[in-house]
């Protein structure tokens, strides 16, 4: 497999270059944004003199020319040191970002799994009972899901399930201060994952339905039916398997985006993921955290793309890499 | 996937397919009156969207104010209409911009030769590697709040996918005889883009536009929630719904968030229906059904 | 009824299965709260020397030498059991309480010297350096006495000292000063002398303290206190209503949710922040005092306070609202649009600016603030002043008003707030001509000799009994010359479960610190 190896090496090299460009771009974007970490730190109603602010800038190295700051960051970054957060007590960026990756992936994976289950089931029902009552109501629900803003469904969900019905905790990932338990984690996960899945469910349902409709018209399905196969087996064995191919592609494309976190759900439910980290970091103009997170997420996306391409080549020998 | 040939046939057939699509027609039946209402509201509504009346705060829907009033006594219907103008303007402007960027980058990649292809595609890759969360938040803090900044944020966030689709389509077109001939005769890039590129990707552009408008309206609402987007007192559906952050509003003054919420869902629903209808109409395969 | 129950059951089934019942049950000996929610909080910060807020939480395990009482009226002893000020006000003598650090070591005057010297040193990241600059020496005649020597009298010293949390010399002196600001010690193993001990910090989620059984004020009534972080106040309100936490700061427009509910007690207090419309003095349109007076008469402050703030604000006719600092007989600027129009006509407003838009910049971005801005805009429009609100985030706001080369028109007018107490000298930084940037935070570039003279007289007043009189003079000048259009001082709110007993909390600026006596807090079953 020297060919595959060479290809992988080349892709990795290109990925590294991409990360470099990415870091420069994020750096430039950040510095173009009005206000720096010191501006974010000063509370306007508890005034601070610009002299003191200048001293803080000097201590943080924010007074140096931009290229110097960028290369200083880069020099550290290549050794794996992503610096320290400028908020609170200044945690190291690398462990901070990595500690937020897990919760985000957990939330995303559960939301996506729920969505895949519900979406495919709904899509199949819709296709089989095309234009029937079930299909129409599922369609309406799906479109409602696609067209509701995430923050509103999150606020409503929080109010309904946590305040009114009191069957879900009001946020966080674990009961504060309690020892870890799996049931506790699941209890905190259930509601945000459910709300997160709404949009994805709707999308997957629509795609599954469309693709099922097409497959159901294909010859081999008709043949299977003509041979007297039971309807359930026709759908489950013949139609569904083929209909799912485009859906799988759709799911694959959402995973890369998912690592970035769900800003709205995470901030309403205080889920300690990447989205929440980013919202607070941008508000505090926490340059090191934003740069570090961009680098790590970018790296994941690049790796994931590479793995997908390699996997395609393994699954389908007709696709050649390189 | 074969591109439609440049004859009246496919377009007319697409139109016929669209007219036969009941969902798409229902979408149009929702969308057209909505647009008319939003555009004409100063003619039939006596309240202005920003006229404050501290003596009539949080009034429930009734005869005086059809959809009630908000926390400073502004008429919710008037704000809903003005908010519709804002939200739909933001959506259509941002989609137009991202259409332009996406098409130009995609088409230049396809027609501009090896180097411009590589350069623009790496740029697209870069834009797609950049986590959307970061791009959204950082971009929004750079541009600040307001109508045009919001338009740019949404536009810059959504063009890369389109650029890829356009490139894929036009790479195929590039190898066709008439394009090869035109290139051979030294046709300029401009000619290639607008004579051959545009007509051959119009179906992608139309479908993308309708679907993206719905997305843009949602994105504007999300930006408002984060304190970005369209700042009050200017009305937009997004910042009107933002009032739901206050538990009292969420619980007791439901009309304040339900009205813009319903308007947004209706608009997005209608645009989605129309978009789906257009996709089906332009997609030759749907003729099989 | 039956149908509702059925729906409720159907909805709850999957969630209940996951909940497993026990997870939501509350531990009787743990108080949970959103102690860092709202403007007094600073989530994630445990370094008291870089803290600009968050002292409510920090003062559960760290203690200052002196502290405000729970009415924010007097400075009383904390780690110093008593203190004396020399007649010339250049020596402060503190008699230290018999206290122990959480690791059992005794708290001594050496710790006081270590802490003050650290706080004076800007290299430690301390933001007290400038405020403590007048201290020339910390003398320690014995282990229980510390004397601060000053180069000149400083009326604000005690106020500053309430925020300087004492730190253990034996634990920190080994750490290089430059590494201190971001040292892991603060968020892992800090020790103090307070009623609770640091236990655990989970990034972005919560921080937990456990009782210090050896606390000199008595063993705390509860075993643990947990501080939960909330990105969104809606989350805090939900947690409070569902009984997961027993206390949180809440926005004033959320208070109605808890009214008439016997399970909750609403705590209202002075925000000590005066809200004002800043007239940028570099922008010619505000030069004429008649224009500034017209703005005051145009705005119906009484109506805004009554309807938008639900009555929970005091109109401010100068920088202060406390009766001791407001002289009788100053202009109350009643709502009078006709008068405002007349004043504008007299000043020649049509020539000065007319209907050209004026940017009204603010960093207040709550839905309530948006409503206030809308009301102000409408009221000013009625008399012919066309302001266009621009709401930005805090870093953007600061970068505009503190810019090295400012664009004056981008903040021709601001809607802002400045802390005005408990020490009244604190607004000097925003109004005295000597505090023009970069020296201070006089961002509206107020250059009014009478006002500067009034502030200087008040700051230099060494006779404590005459100080209030001097600040009345400041108030009188502010009221007549209108460097700002002062609006109001609002109330802030906390909501506590009625299960919480002997619980003390006030919405103090920056979260205090004040005498909260956390060792007495208890939780009823």
What does this structure look like?
The complex is a heterotrimer of chains A (322), B (289) and C (525). Chain A is mainly alpha-helical. Helix content of chain A is 75%, strand content 0%. Chain A contains 13 helices and no strands. Chain A has helices spanning 2-32, 37-41, 50-60, 66-78, 93-128, 133-147, 150-164, 182-216, 219-226, 231-258, 263-269, 274-283, 287-315. In chain A, 49% of the residues are buried. The mean pLDDT of chain A is 84. Chain B has one domain: MetI-like fold, CATH 1.10.3720. In chain B, 73% of the residues lie in helices and 0% in strands. Chain B contains eleven helices and no strands. Chain B has helices at residues 8-20, 22-44, 76-111, 114-129, 132-143, 147-174, 177-184, 189-225, 237-241, 247-252, 255-282. The two termini of chain B are 17 Å apart. In chain C, the strands form four sheets. In chain C, strands 1, 8, 9, 10, 11, 12, 13, 14, 15, 16 and 17 form an eleven-stranded mixed beta sheet that branches. Chain C has a four-stranded antiparallel beta sheet with strand order 4-5-7-6, with helices on one face. Chain C has a two-stranded antiparallel ribbon with strand order 2-3. In chain C, helix 8 (289-298) packs antiparallel against helix 10 and helix 15 (449-460) packs antiparallel against helix 16 (464-481). The model of chain C is unreliable at 1-26 (pLDDT under 50). In chain C, strand 14, helix 12 (367-383) and strand 15 form a beta-alpha-beta unit.
CATH superfamily of the domain at 102-271 in chain A: MetI-like
Average pLDDT metric of chain B: 83
Order of helices and strands of chain B: HHHHHHHHHHH
Residue stretches of chain A low in confidence (pLDDT < 50, at least 5 long) are: none
CA-based shape of chain A: globular
The CA-CA distance between the termini of chain B, in Å, is 17 Å
Helix content estimate of chain A: over 70%
Low-pLDDT runs of 5+ residues of chain B are 1-7
Number of strands of chain A: 0
Helical stretch tally of chain B: 11
* CATH C-level category of chain B: Mainly Alpha
Under CATH, the topology of chain B is which? MetI-like fold
Rg of chain A (CA only) = 24 Å
CATH architecture annotation of the domain at 102-271 in chain A: Orthogonal Bundle
């Amino acid at each position: 497999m020297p060919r595959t190896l060479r290809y992988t090496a080349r892709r990795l090299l290109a990925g590294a270059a991409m990360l470099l460009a990415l870091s420069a771009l994020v750096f430039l974007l950040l510095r173009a944004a009005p206000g720096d970490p010191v501006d974010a730190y000063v509370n306007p109603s508890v005034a601070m003199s610009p002299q003191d602010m200048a001293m803080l800038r000097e201590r943080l190295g924010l007074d140096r020319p931009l290229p110097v700051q960028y290369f200083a960051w880069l020099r550290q970054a290549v050794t794996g040191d992503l610096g320290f957060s400028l908020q609170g007590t200044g945690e190291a960026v690398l462990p901070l970002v990595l500690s937020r990756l897990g919760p985000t992936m957990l939330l995303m994976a559960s939301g996506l799994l729920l969505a895949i289950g519900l979406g495919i089931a709904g899509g199949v029902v819709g296709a089989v009972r095309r234009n029937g009552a079930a299909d129409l109501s599922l369609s309406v629900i799906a479109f409602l899901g696609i067209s509701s803003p995430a923050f509103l469904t999150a606020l409503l969900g929080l109010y309904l399930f946590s305040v009114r019905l009191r069957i879900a905790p009001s946020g966080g990932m674990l009961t504060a201060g309690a020892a870890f338990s799996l049931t506790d984690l699941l209890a905190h996960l259930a509601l945000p994952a459910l709300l997160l899945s709404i949009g994805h469910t709707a999308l997957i349902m629509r795609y599954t339905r469309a693709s099922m409709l097409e497959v159901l018209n294909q010859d081999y399905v008709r043949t299977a039916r003509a041979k007297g196969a039971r309807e359930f087996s026709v759908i489950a064995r013949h139609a569904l398997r083929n209909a799912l191919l485009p859906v799988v592609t759709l799911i694959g494309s959402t995973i890369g985006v998912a690592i970035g976190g769900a800003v709205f759900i995470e901030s309403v439910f205080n889920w300690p993921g990447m989205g929440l980290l980013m919202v607070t970091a941008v508000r505090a103009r926490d340059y090191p955290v934003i740069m570090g997170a961009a680098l790590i997420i970018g790296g994941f996306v690049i790796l994931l793309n590479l793995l997908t391409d390699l996997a395609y080549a393994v699954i389908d020998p007709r696709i050649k890499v390189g | 996937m074969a591109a439609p040939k440049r004859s009246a046939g496919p377009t007319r057939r697409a139109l016929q397919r669209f007219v036969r699509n009941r969902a798409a027609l229902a979408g149009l039946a929702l969308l057209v009156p909505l647009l008319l209402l939003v555009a004409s509201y100063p003619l039939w509504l006596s309240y202005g969207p920003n006229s404050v009346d501290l003596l009539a705060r949080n009034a429930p829907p009734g005869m005086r104010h059809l959809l009630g009033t908000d926390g400073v006594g502004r008429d919710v219907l008037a704000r809903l209409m003005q908010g519709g103008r804002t939200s739909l303007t933001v959506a259509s402007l941002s989609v137009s911009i991202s259409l332009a960027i996406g098409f130009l980058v995609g088409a230049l990649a396809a027609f501009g030769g090896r180097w411009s292809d590589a350069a623009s595609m790496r740029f697209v890759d870069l834009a797609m590697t950049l986590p959307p969360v970061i791009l959204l938040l950082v971009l929004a803090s750079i541009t600040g709040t307001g109508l045009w900044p919001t338009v740019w944020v949404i536009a810059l966030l959504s063009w890369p996918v389109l650029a890829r689709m356009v490139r894929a389509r036009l790479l195929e077109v590039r190898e066709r005889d008439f394009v090869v001939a035109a290139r051979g005769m030294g046709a300029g890039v401009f000619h290639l883009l607008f004579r051959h590129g545009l007509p051959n990707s119009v179906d992608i552009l139309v479908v993308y536009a309708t679907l993206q408008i719905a997305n843009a309206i949602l994105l504007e609402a999300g930006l408002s929630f984060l304190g970005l987007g369209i700042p009050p007192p200017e009305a937009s559906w997004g910042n009107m719904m933002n009032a739901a952050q206050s538990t009292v509003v969420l619980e007791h003054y439901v009309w304040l968030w339900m009205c813009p919420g319903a308007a947004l869902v209706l608009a997005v629903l209608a645009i989605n229906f129309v978009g789906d209808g257009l996709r089906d109409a332009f997609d030759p395969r749907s003729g099989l059904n | 009824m039956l149908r509702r129950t059925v729906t409720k059951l159907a909805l709850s089934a999957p969630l209940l299965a996951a909940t497993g019942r026990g997870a939501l049950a509350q531990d009787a000996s743990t108080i949970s709260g959103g102690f860092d929610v709202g403007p007094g909080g600073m989530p994630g910060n445990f370094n008291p020397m870089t803290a600009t807020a968050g002292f409510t939480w920090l003062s559960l395990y760290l203690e200052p030498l002196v502290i405000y009482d729970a009415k924010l009226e007097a400075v009383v002893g904390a780690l110093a059991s008593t203190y004396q000020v020399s007649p010339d006000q250049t020596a402060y003598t503190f008699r230290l309480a018999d206290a122990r650090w959480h690791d059992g070591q005794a708290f001594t005057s050496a710790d006081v010297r270590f802490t003050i010297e650290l706080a004076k040193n800007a290299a430690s990241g301390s933001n007290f350096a400038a405020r403590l600059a007048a201290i020339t020496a910390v003398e320690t005649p014995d282990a229980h006495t510390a004397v601060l020597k000053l180069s000149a009298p400083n009326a604000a010293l005690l106020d500053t000292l309430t925020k300087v949390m004492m730190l253990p010399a034996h634990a920190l002196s080994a750490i290089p000063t430059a590494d201190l600001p971001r040292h892991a010690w603060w968020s892992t193993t800090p020790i103090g002398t307070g009623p609770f001990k640091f236990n655990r910090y989970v990034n972005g989620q919560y921080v937990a303290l456990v009782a210090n059984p050896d606390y000199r004020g008595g063993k705390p009534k509860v075993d643990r206190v947990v501080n939960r972080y909330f990105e969104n106040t809606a989350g805090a309100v939900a947690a409070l209503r569902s009984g997961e936490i027993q206390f949180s700061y809440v926005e004033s427009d959320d208070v109605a949710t808890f009214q008439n509910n016997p399970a909750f007690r609403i705590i209202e207090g002075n925000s000590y922040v005066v809200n004002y419309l800043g007239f940028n003095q570099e922008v010619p349109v505000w030069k004429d005092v008649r224009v500034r007076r017209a703005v005051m008469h145009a705005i119906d402050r009484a109506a805004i306070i009554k309807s938008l703030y639900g009555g929970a604000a005091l109109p401010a006719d100068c920088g202060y609202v406390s009766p001791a600092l407001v002289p009788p007989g100053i202009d109350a600027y009643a709502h009078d649009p006709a008068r405002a129009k007349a004043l504008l006509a007299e000043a020649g407003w049509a020539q000065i600016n007319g209907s050209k838009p004026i940017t009204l910049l603010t960093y207040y971005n709550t839905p309530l603030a948006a409503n206030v801005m809308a009301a102000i805009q409408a009221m000013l429009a009625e008399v012919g002043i066309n302001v266009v609100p621009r709401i930005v985030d805090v870093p953007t706001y600061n970068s505009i008003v503190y810019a090295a080369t400012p664009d004056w028109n981008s903040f021709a007018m601001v809607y802002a707030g400045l802390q005005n107490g408990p020490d009244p000298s604190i607004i000097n930084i925003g109004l005295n001509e000597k505090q023009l940037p970069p020296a201070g935070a006089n961002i509206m570039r107020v250059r009014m000799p009478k006002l500067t003279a009034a502030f200087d007289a008040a700051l230099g007043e060494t006779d404590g009994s005459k100080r209030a009189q001097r600040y009345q003079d400041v108030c009188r000048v502010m009221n007549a010359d209108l460097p700002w259009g002062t609006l109001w001082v609002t109330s802030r709110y906390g909501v506590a479960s009625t299960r919480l007993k002997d619980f003390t909390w006030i919405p103090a600026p920056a979260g205090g610190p004040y005498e909260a006596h956390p060792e007495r807090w208890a939780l009823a079953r």
